[in-house]
């Protein structure tokens, strides 16, 4: 029962980590990507130095800190910064996934949307599982209709 209650959160956390794993690794070889992402997005929230601890906690199944960090990063971006960040991300994904027939801007925007929605799912699953009284009130409301 407990595993089922938390499965949405674990699955979303795994997806969040999978999305980050698709980006260049935060090594010397990936330095340019991370620098370009920082400049284009206008936010340091996604830099490896700032997400390392939440990523490591996520590997242990606790993804809420990483999800909050991701949503803060997305929230901080202006629409032009989001477009620019999408281009940087999309270019990296096109090169690593060998998807030359898709535009890098489209791929980057899809990745950002997926990252944002997945972070939301992590937080939503955490919120639901922590409030048994709220779940009971929901059930009571719907069974009395």
Topology of helices and strands:
Layout: H1 2-21, H2 31-41, H3 48-59, H4 64-76, H5 79-97, H6 104-129, H7 132-143
Helix pairs in contact: 1-6, 2-5, 3-4, 4-6, 5-6
Search tags:
elongated; single chain; 145 residues; 7 helices; mainly alpha; 78% helix
Describe what this molecule looks like in 3D.
The two termini are 27 Å apart. The chain has 145 residues and is an all-alpha fold. The protein is built from 7 helices and no strands.
N to C succession of SSEs = HHHHHHH
- Helical stretch tally: 7
* Estimated radius of gyration: 17 Å
Q: Describe the sheet with the most strands.
A: none
Name the overall outline: elongated
Q: How much of the polypeptide forms β-strand, as a percent range?
A: under 5%
Task: Tell me the total number of β-strands.
Answer: 0
User: Can you give the mean pLDDT?
Assistant: 88
Q: What structural class do you assign from the helix and strand content?
A: mainly alpha
Low-pLDDT stretches: none
Q: Report the span from N to C terminus.
A: 27 Å
Helical residue percent band: over 70%
């Amino acid at each position: 029962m407990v595993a089922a209650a938390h499965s949405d959160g674990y699955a979303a956390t795994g997806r969040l980590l999978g999305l980050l794993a698709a980006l260049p690794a935060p090594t010397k070889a990936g330095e340019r990507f991370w620098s370009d992402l920082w400049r284009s997005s206008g936010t340091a929230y996604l830099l490896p130095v700032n997400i390392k601890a939440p990523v490591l906690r996520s590997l242990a199944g606790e993804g809420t800190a990483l999800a909050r960090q991701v949503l803060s990063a997305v929230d901080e971006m202006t629409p032009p910064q989001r477009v620019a960040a999408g281009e940087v991300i999309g270019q990296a994904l096109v090169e690593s996934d060998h998807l030359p027939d898709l535009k890098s801007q489209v791929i980057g925007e899809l990745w950002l949307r997926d990252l944002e929605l997945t972070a939301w799912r992590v937080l939503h699953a955490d919120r639901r599982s922590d409030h048994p009284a709220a779940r009971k009130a929901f059930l009571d409301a719907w069974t009395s209709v």
